[in-house]
């Protein structure tokens, strides 16, 4: 019943960090690692590996930098087969901050890239590969890419990159199942030597459904977050994905405990999930930044005006 | 781009009434009717047509009975092409309460039935049909039906019933897309002379995704509710469905206004939506009653224990 190659990839602390300046407490991150380890989750992305030359450590929490020392303290003493991943944004990472794999607790580095930056992504990912890491390239905002440009980028990734996995990233929560199928099939057809992954956003309550669709069409790397936490509408809820997958190595119960103890109180302090302005942004295939600004204003529930602001733009 | 036969069917007041004893204010129901009319929604189900001989009018609000008089007052003076529907539960409706269609503001009567009650449903639906109403049979808890029994029921519905539409109802929010496809295709293949409908529940954030799946496989009657309101996890959110459909007759904006003004304050008073015990009930293909009881207890956030209560049952 299950496909052994499937890897469940948790982004809770990394994507969730986008709503609190990466300022989760050390104890919280350790609780997440502990629960994911007990649940049998394959990977935990603990944050970004950004350069402290570019961002101030006084303005952001430690999970924006994810230095090896703090990761070592998070994982210390917890029995686990869960591998640690960090994300590297093009132009925000200093490769000198990345030691060879054998000196680091990190197993995987994921490079997030727009189609237009694919040459930079390939150079970066190859460098991390050569240092011994598992690597991915995550194609952000793929629903904005023109077909010919996407085809060329995929072709380059297949020929030139050493990445193990190429991800389809529905950055704006725009995808319906049919287009998810189209994109996953396209990537599979060009990336003959690599695995394919999927990262959904939940603007239209379709992150989990699109992840299932990706599974059906043979994506094997599946991103999710505990209780769907993540910027704006958030992501595919890890607990739903574990409920769906049949591999007996997974145990949903530690994740349920984690939600009870940590995420219910957290949700009272920071906002994510099904919120109409994020749904609208998803329908229009657009970045959530305007919706995030709206939610911080006194017009936070003025949905019609917000919706009409996109129609006006479309008519230009 | 659009399929003209598609009908959007709103169940806001009917399914939402299950969480407040059908006690919405008259003004609220009129605001819903007004918004749905302006949005171009095809049908509004305003409640149940239950018998006052069986239920006390002092214990329930008027939308449990939906007498023609109150419906006339709801719709009076509002320009509208939205048809009114009521639901009839087997054994709870007195056919004597149903006047001929030409004397009533109601256009459609939907009979909700389990597979085991299909003979009763057919008798009832034929009686309503003969009085001049559009009719449906909604097969509840279809994910619990054994295949041979479901096949026989569908065969009977095709041969013996005068219903216009047969609905697949995912009462427990258990369906994933592949099983939705299987069921819709099965119903379409047997019900050659009737339309097929889909009513999802949102336990696993899949009500909208399963509705899309049903559309892909030619279901034309699509249930939804404003902001997903409904018992427990609720239903497919109407605003998402309208955002997906391309028929220019629909306008999402009156629904957005309605959410801003009525549903955001309402959600602070009554609970529905993505709540872990409902997700767990969905995973186990079970009625939400235990989860509803849990939410009313002091163990409302004790998810692991709740999850394990289903494993124990399964091992019996």
The computed structural class of chain A is alpha/beta
CATH topology of the largest domain in chain A: TIM Barrel
Q: What coarse outline of chain A follows from CA principal-axis ratios?
A: globular
Proportion of residues in helical segments of chain A: 40-55%
User: Helical stretch count of chain A?
Assistant: 12
The rounded distance between the terminal residues' Cα atoms of chain A is 51 Å
Q: Can you say what the CATH homologous superfamily of the largest domain in chain A is?
A: Aldolase class I
Measured by residues with Cβ under 8 Å of the partner chain's Cβ, the largest interface is:
A-B, 40 and 40 residues
CATH architecture field of the largest domain in chain A? Alpha-Beta Barrel
Beta strands of chain A, count: 8
What would a concise description of this structure say?
The structure is a homodimer of 316-residue chains. By secondary structure, chain A is of the alpha/beta class.
Could you explain how this protein is built, in words?
The structure is a homodimer of 316-residue chains. The model of chain A has no long low-confidence stretch (mean pLDDT 96). With 316 residues, chain A is α/β, with parallel strands linked by helices. In chain A, α4 (118-130) links the parallel β4 and β5. The longest helix of chain A has 17 residues, at 253-269. Chain A has an 8-stranded parallel barrel with strand order 1-2-3-4-5-6-7-8, surrounded by 5 helices. Chain A has helices at 12-16, 26-39, 68-75, 118-130, 147-160, 177-190, 207-216, 238-244, 253-269, 276-283, 289-295, 303-314; strands at 7-10, 43-48, 83-89, 106-113, 134-139, 165-169, 195-199, 221-224. The radius of gyration of chain A is 19 Å and the shape is globular. In chain A, α2 (26-39) runs antiparallel to α9 (253-269), α10 (276-283) packs antiparallel against α11 and α10 (276-283) runs parallel beside α12 (303-314). Chains A and B meet through α7, α8, α9, α10 and α12 of A and α7, α8, α9, α10 and α12 of B.
